[in-house]
Write a structure and sequence with these properties.
Helices cover 15% and strands 32% of the residues. The chain is of the alpha+beta class. Helix 12 (792-805) runs antiparallel to helix 13.
């Protein structure tokens, strides 16, 4: 073996692009049989004339024949001949050229025909061998395809467009009309896509399970159709938010207008085998309020307790007295579509605590809601005479209380509930300090039977129009001074009568004979002393006794004790009145209930229970990833034809098995609040291959589809695409648009010689034969898939390649050329050396022309195309070889610098211009057709600095840094870590003026050291590209002082990194 043989040189291959396939040496005209030109003949004739002796009239030799051709001589000294075009122009301007010269020139022109026929011998021989002997025929034209969207006139409900309907795409360069025709019958209607949403159940080892939603999926130019993981993404890439998931309960027991309110929710579970467990923070509670949803001040406990053998999910929350009232749900305010006359409690899963997996399978047996309220003062209070204002002191039993006088206390909040405890707090107003001494004058000396405990009453509860004794024989003036009265009733007393009371739908205003519930009655029952004719508070006895004592006093002579005038009887007055109570509701959720209602809360709405459905703590969600399409002006039963426009190369599948396919998608439509699966036979067309490429999805929607829902926003017919695997959902491509009333159209030639050419978006705008029913025709995206008839050059290239590789793949050249021939949508292929035997790694770069790529700086082939290439190669490979085709990796160059623009240049505008020019400089192939896309290579910071400084609008540049951004793990040390991968920058990278966007890279935060050059190995699968946005900061006038033209010489005035570099 030779000493200088270096086998690695054989592996250094930058790949092959489509332009490099067409080698000039393969052209039949590259080596002609007769390559002589007319100028060659002129020179030959002149030189030949020198060799022929001229004989004069005396038949004597006299020189040669060159004077015969002197006219064609340009320079006699050099022997250069005049050019044929020059001679031709002169012939056109004169008519006196000697005949022998004209005849000679005529001969030369006529000879070109024979010469051309002679030179065609090579092509004829080649054609004979290729076309006749080998029998390889040129490929015919392949018509390209486009998607168009129709819009009907407003008054037309639907309209049939038959197969073969012609559409106009303008004219070609020859003036021939360009026509496309529909591929199938389609009935278009008035429906159009009005809303797009996504839902994704994210599962990560660190964050657990989270429900991610996009309320407006198409808020960005492209989106993941089924959502994707949001964890560990930069904040500007987190396009989904946590979705609401939980249950809602509506019960009159939640009517809580004031006071300190403690709500305890006990959910009895059917699941066995559960153990006590703290679930602190797992839920958030919301109550319906007058102005919005109310979140309690604190949730003191969330846990699973074991009560006997039954596990119970227990939640306790407290609302302080200053928080707003919990009131009946008002849809005009809260606008969530619930139908209930009662307040609502929403129990929402707090996804920050990731308990979804622990809770999603818990089955509910029953629900108990217990409320404990302290300090209810908003009461309807009425004595024997009238309604009173409880906010001011009032007479409890009227101005002339007697035994049987009553105080009526009403509350639709308290006294219509199933109470287990009631505590009435009364503070008496101006109660005499010693009531027995106060009434001393009503009785004979030393015979006063009264004391503080003599005054008593009974408490009655109004139930179904009947007064039920609740608390008998209580003392009005208890305690040390008697000023505070508490009447306490426990659960044992409430069990003595039926509490299944009717619900009061109107506010309680007063008590009357028609009142059936909502009141308690405090009845004065004692004292009564018949011996002294004293009862109640002595109001009946006082005038009689006072008159008697007054007469006796007038007659008093002074002997003995004088008669004592009685005090005015005490009229009981209440200074303050409040109620504490505890009430409970226990029920089993059931779709037929009318009092205690239950709903499932899902991310886009809520729904009722279905008869026979198990009641869960969290709503059951089928599948893992969902795409929702809302249609307006859709009248089922109808078909809907949807254009799904994807972005090539954006599927996130790691392996072919992870790619999404049509079989992995379940289509459904929403009927009321129930999803109805669409049968496979009703999926009339699906050309997207599972959201892998742009195509049409045509569905037959049943008559049960409706526009009134609570599960999804009403007013639209909703269609859902469901995927049951997160990996499969990631295997879908990004979507740029979903449009209704779409159909696929194919180019049809208007003449036998017309060939298909790709057309840009919005070229097709009308049908050839106008239809009054069709309002407009739109072609939102460029055509695709077409291929003109094979030219001679393409034919010779293909056949020569075929003869070389012989449909057998043995070297990198074979792989690259075979793929490029079979797939014109691929611009470049590179075959990389693989470390493992039998493995072939191929990198494919797509053709940028008329393609819909999300990022033109990083073009990628669709996963469908990559798999098609792999399948195409299999018949040509050894069974022991496996080829893997993938997209290239892209490594970005990011520049960060400060710039001063020349006087008069708008800094904001020219910062954008400079950013665009840098992008074009680093990635010219993204803007210029036919430019090669090189793999690997080196980029020098000095080259980029020079490029920026050479711009005519740039004055000078300083603090110039270059960063290398790449995917994958760090290549060692923080200075080589990747922005956006190993660490994140909070401030967006964009053109800025005077640092207005905040912190600067390398100044306000450190991300490592910039690089002077970037080198990629020649066998790297990566391509160096420009970052989409460079950080360009324009220097203000004040900042220019240190950098301007007034800088003096000397090291003290030089700028590190600009005037010199410091190395260690």
């Amino acid at each position: 073996m030779a000493q200088d043989f270096r086998p690695n040189e054989l592996l250094r291959n930058d790949g092959t692009n489509q332009l490099e396939r067409m080698m000039p040496t393969l052209e039949p005209t590259y080596a002609k049989v007769d390559e002589r030109t007319p100028a060659d003949f002129l020179k030959y004739a002149y030189q030949f004339a020198k060799e022929i002796r001229y004989y004069n009239n005396q038949n004597q030799p006299e020189g040669d024949w060159t004077p015969f051709f002197d006219y064609f001589l340009q320079d006699a000294a050099t022997g250069d001949m005049r050019s044929l075009p020059q001679i031709t122009r002169e012939l056109d301007s004169r008519s006196d050229l000697p005949p022998h010269l004209v005849l000679f020139l005529t001969f030369l022109k006529l000879y070109t025909h024979a010469q051309q026929d002679l030179n065609n011998l090579t092509q004829k021989h080649l054609d004979y061998y290729y076309r006749t002997i080998l029998g390889i025929k040129p490929k015919l034209a392949l018509a390209d395809t486009a998607h168009v969207v129709f819009e009907l006139a407003r008054q037309i409900p639907d309209f049939r467009i038959p197969q073969g309907t012609l559409l106009d795409a303008g004219k070609d360069s020859d003036g021939n009309p360009i026509r496309y025709q529909t591929e199938r019958d389609i009935v278009i209607n008035q429906a159009r896509v009005a809303s797009l949403k996504t839902l994704f159940i994210e599962q990560t080892p660190t964050s657990g399970t989270r429900i991610q939603v996009a309320q407006k999926a198409d808020a960005t130019p492209s989106w993941r159709p089924f959502g994707t993981t949001q964890t560990n993404r930069p904040s500007d890439e987190q396009l989904m938010t946590a979705g609401s998931l939980g249950i809602a309960i509506s019960t009159p027991n939640l009517l809580l207008s004031e006071g300190t309110r403690t709500v305890s929710l006990s959910v009895s579970l059917a699941n066995t085998g559960l153990t006590a467990n703290s679930l602190g923070g797992s839920f958030r509670l919301y109550f319906s309020g007058e102005k919005g949803w109310i979140e309690p001040d604190s949730i003191s406990e969330i846990s699973i307790k074991i009560s006997g053998d039954t596990p119970v999910l227990f939640i306790r929350a407290t609302l302080s007295a200053i928080q707003p009232a919990i009131v009946a749900y008002d849809d005009e305010v809260l606008n969530e579509g619930y139908i209930t006359p009662f307040p609502i409690l929403k129990l929402i899963l707090n996804q920050e605590f990731s308990q979804y997996e622990s809770l999603k399978n818990l089955i509910i047996n029953s629900i108990r809601i217990r409320v404990a309220v302290n300090g209810v003062k908003s009461l309807v209070v009425q004595n024997e005479e009238s309604l009173v204002d409880p906010a001011k002191p009032f007479m409890a039993f009227g101005s002339q209380p007697t035994l049987g006088s009553s105080l009526y206390i009403g509350s639709e909040e308290i006294l219509t509930k199933r109470l287990t405890s009631l505590l009435i707090r009364i503070e008496w107003h101006k109660l005499p300090p010693h009531i027995d001494d106060y009434y001393e004058g009503y009785f004979p000396p030393s015979q006063n039977p009264l004391n503080q405990n003599s005054f008593g009453g009974n408490l009655f509860f109004l139930s179904k129009g009947q007064w039920q004794l609740l608390a008998p024989n209580f003392t009005l003036f208890s305690g040390t001074d008697g000023k505070l009265l508490t009447i306490s009733v426990d659960n044992s007393l409430f069990r003595n009568f039926d509490q299944n009371r009717e619900i009061i739908n109107e506010p309680i205003e007063s008590f009357n004979i028609r009142t059936n519930s909502g009141f308690v009655r405090l009845e004065l029952d004692s004292p009564r002393f018949p011996l002294f004719d004293f009862e109640a508070f002595g109001h009946a006895l006082f005038p009689i006794l006072y008159a008697q004592r007054a007469v006796a006093l007038s007659r008093f002579t002074g002997a003995g004790d004088p008669p004592v005038l009685p005090n005015q009887p005490y009229t009981p007055q209440i200074k303050s009145l409040s109620i504490d109570y505890v009430s409970e509701e226990t029920f089993t959720p059931n779709p037929t209930r009318t009092d205690n209602l239950f709903w499932y809360i899902e991310p886009f709405g809520h729904r009722d229970l279905v008869a026979g459905e198990s009641v869960m703590v969290l709503p059951p969600i089928s599948g893992v990833a969902h795409s929702y399409i809302g249609l307006e002006r859709f009248t089922p039963p109808q078909t809907i034809s949807l254009l799904v426009q994807t972005e090539d190369g954006t599927a996130q599948a790691n392996t072919p098995a992870d790619l999404l396919s049509s079989r992995d998608i379940t289509w459904s439509y929403l009927a009321g609040d129930r999803w109805i699966d669409i049968a496979t036979s009703d999926v009339l067309a699906e050309s997207t291959e599972g959201f892998q490429k742009a195509g049409i999805v045509m569905l037959d929607i049943g008559r049960r589809a409706s526009t009134q829902h609570t599960l999804m926003p009403s007013g639209l017919v909703w269609i859902r695409a469901r995927v049951d695997s997160a990996r499969k959902a990631d295997g879908a491509s990004n979507v740029r648009a979903i449009r209704a009333q779409a159909v696929e159209v194919v180019f049809t030639p208007s003449s036998p010689t017309q060939t298909p050419k790709a057309i840009a978006a919005n070229t097709i705008k009308k049908v050839v034969t106008p239809q009054a029913a069709i309002r407009s025709v739109e072609q939102p995206f460029a055509s695709f898939g077409g291929r003109p008839a094979e030219t001679d050059t393409s034919y010779y290239t293909r056949v020569s390649e075929r003869l070389r590789h012989k449909n057998r793949l043995s070297g990198s050249w074979d792989y690259e050329h075979l793929i490029l021939e079979a797939f014109p949508e691929v611009f470049k292929v590179r075959c990389l050396p693989h470390r493992q035997p039998g493995q072939v790694q191929l990198i494919a770069v797509p053709n940028l022309r008329h393609k819909n790529y999300g990022n033109p700086l990083e073009p990628r082939c669709s996963t469908v195309l990559l798999r098609r290439i792999e399948d195409f190669l299999k018949p040509f490979m050894s069974t022991f070889v496996k080829a893997t085709v993938s997209n290239p990796t892209y490594e970005q160059i990011l520049l960060d610098f400060k710039v001063s623009f020349r006087a008069g240049k708008d800094a904001g505008y020219f910062a954008k211009v400079l950013n665009d020019e840098i992008i074009r400089f680093l990635s010219p192939w993204a803007f210029e057709e036919g430019r090669d896309i090189p793999f690997g290579g080196r980029v020098y910071k000095s080259d980029l600095l020079a490029f920026v400084e050479e711009r005519d609008y740039v004055d000078f540049v300083t603090e110039f840094s270059m960063y290398h951004l790449y995917p994958g793990p760090p290549r060692g040390g923080i200075h080589t870590m990747t922005i956006g991968k190993d660490f994140f920058i909070n401030q967006p990278i964009s053109a800025t003026i005077n640092g207005s966007t905040g912190g600067a890279i390398g100044s306000d935060f450190v991300i490592g050291q910039p690089v002077d050059s970037t080198l990629l190995s020649p066998d790297s699968p990566a391509i160096i590209v420009s970052a989409a946005q460079h950080r360009i900061t324009s220097l203000s006038a004040d900042e220019l002082a240190g950098y301007g033209t007034d800088r003096r010489s000397g090291v003290g005035y030089m700028v590190i990194g600009l005037d010199f570099d410091v190395t260690v």
